[in-house]
Amino acid sequence: MSDWFDAEQRIERAQELLESRQWAEALAEIDAALEMNPDNASWHAHRGYVLDQLERFPEAVEAFQQVLQLSDGDIEVTTALGIDLIRVGRFAHAIEIFERLAADHPDHEPAYCHRILAYSELGEHDRAEEMFYLAQQIEERCPQCFANIGVSLAARGDHQRAITCWERALEIEPEFPGLKARIARAYRAQGELARAREYYLGEIRQDPGDTELLFELGELLAEAGDAEAAINKFQQIVELDPEHLPAQLALAELLMATGQPQQALQKLQGVADQQEGENPLLELRLGQVYLFLEREREALGHLEKVLAGDPENEAAVMAMGGCLLRLNRSQEAGDCFRRVLALDERSVQAHHNLGVCLYVQKRYQSAREHFLRAVELEPKFAVAMYKAALACIRLARWQEAAELIRRARKVAPDVEALTRLSRRLWRFRVRHWLNRLVRPIGRLLGR
After folding, report:
1. Residue 412 located in a structural domain
2. Among 28, 93, 110, 191, whose Cα sits 20 to 30 Å from the Cα of 382?
């Protein structure tokens, strides 16, 4: 009798804690009560709801399953179990739960609503739409339905319709969690960065400490070309979470891109000092910064660590090629750029850099081909046009060289090197003609 009374007291105490949102403390009280009376279905249900609040979803699934083993359960417990099965990625099982629920309670709208998301996650979008229309027949203003069908539409690349559905959900429930972030991502996917920024800010106002959302906004700002704002955003993240490695790496990358390589190196070295063991992404960034600072041998050490674990890391292979080229090891550098092209034949920089390696080796025809491929992939790549023109001069392809120089000057009219090359082109032609004329005379005199 004493144990029964003590268990009841524990549950009453748990309910008081739940009212003040002290989830962990409430869970401890419920667990203590269940040790005394493990067959109380209602308490297992309470436990499942508390675990949901703590986002311990696998344990919540077990709690709700325990409820259904001890009793017939009810609509709410079964619905909660189905939702948590979706949260832990058990979509087919969730669909089975909701199908049985709909068979017993045909007018229970959540039995259709949540299957929209489950089918969407399985890629069965026709079934997702079917569930949406069935749910609409029961409840036209369910924000969760519009949120879920938006996920399905976005997964199919129909971002505009997804946005329409999510905005409809916000009309019904203005504080619906996570929807502004989804709309922001959809606008970003469409290249509408200003609209995306607006929605990111709206979501962040609801949770200013969400570092993952702040990171997405930082990426957006960098993508939009607002480097200063992006740097400030990543610095804000590091202040909130000093161990947020992606923000630290992104910050270092932006410092390097804005002409502050020493500051980038200091940031990365600080991160490296805090790390236990090697981090491939950190090693890659260190290698890239050292390469930028023309400290090639130090760069090689870091890049070798990356490639030891991931030989096909395209960025690391590319940077390794740059190091080797700077160290006058053009044959090995060329092999690196060929490896990049094997991974991505459309890599503009790899074609250009391989062209440089071949030019250094006096393989002018092959160099020309790679420079021209770079221009084909990026028609305004003036540097590649310039180098292709140099290769054409070596091959006595005068008209082609002149055309490449003309195109490059049109793209980059203020580059003095192009003007000089244009003026000197006729001299190269005359010199080539004279050499061809002198060669037969020399042979005759030699006789």
Report:
1. yes
2. 191
